[in-house]
Design a protein that fits this description.
Strand 5 (55-59) and strand 6 form a beta hairpin. It is built from two helices and seven strands, in the order ββββββαβα. The chain is of the alpha+beta class.
């Protein structure tokens, strides 16, 4: 159950043969597949750094870039071996930060 944070990504090693405990959906910004929710009592629930809206980047070393929800689900299902490393990115935070700076810039100009 190790977790590593690096440059805006979070890597999680799932060690149990059971379900990961992630409910997934397609990101509205077309960034890929994201966490919709985390099932209580699941492996994912044991990793407090995981949260809704995080984007799945890799599963078992395989990039998920450009994959549909069905394709991502298949990649996860095909990896029965454990530990299974899954890499996530912050998702929405990448979009919100530039908007926050733009808002601050506009607010500063109106003074």
């Amino acid at each position: 159950r190790s977790t590593q944070k690096q440059g805006g990504t979070v890597s999680v090693d799932f060690t149990e043969p059971a379900s990961l405990g992630l409910n997934l959906t397609v990101d509205a910004n077309n960034d890929g597949v994201m966490i919709l929710s985390i099932k209580q009592g699941s492996q994912a629930a044991n990793h407090p750094e995981l949260r809704p809206k995080m984007i799945l980047q890799e599963v078992g070393g395989k990039s998920l870039r450009g994959m549909s929800l069905d394709q991502v689900t298949s990649v996860i299902s095909e990896h029965q071996e454990r530990p299974l490393r899954v890499v996530f990115s912050a998702g929405m935070m990448r979009v919100q930060l530039p908007l926050l700076f733009r808002f601050w810039e506009l607010a500063s100009q109106s003074r």
